[in-house]
Write a structure and sequence with these properties.
The protein has 184 residues and is of the alpha+beta class. It is built from 3 helices and 9 strands.
Length: 184
Amino acid sequence: MRTLGPQEVSKVGRAFSNAPTQKELIEARETQALISVGRAPGQAFRFYIEIAGILSAEFLECTGLSMEREVKEVNEGGVNDFTHKLAGRTKWSNITLRQGISYSRDLWDWYCAGLYDGKVKRVNLSIILGNAELKKVKQWDVYEAFPVRWSGADLSTDTLQVAIESLEIAHHGMTLSKEEKNPL
């Protein structure tokens, strides 16, 4: 019986782990960048989800990056030519990410947390708009987010990637970081 060397043991151990290595994630992103070069210019961009400094998934479409401020109207006695308008609370819409690929179980595990006891796991995350050259174009930092809807896509047996048709996220606010051209 042959003894496995350290590199072979590492390969075998990694074959049974759920999370890909950092090198595999980089190779997958580079492959996606090469694929997207042949697409229309508007489709060359990707939305990446970063949780705890790790890119967890990428999506082609992101909606709901919006907020709305309530306006309170106050009528003042004796003033008949206008109504005072005061700023009220800010409401944040849910963010929906569509046509995505996840390279690990992170998003699934996040959704399943609190499935039976109702104690959802709130996390701070970033939604990064990246271009075909894997450069960061914009970044939205989302606070105390948790998933509220998960919709799967048709799966294929010829890939190890998990396809996500849509993921909807509720949150307590977000900020827009300065535009950067740094690598993802």
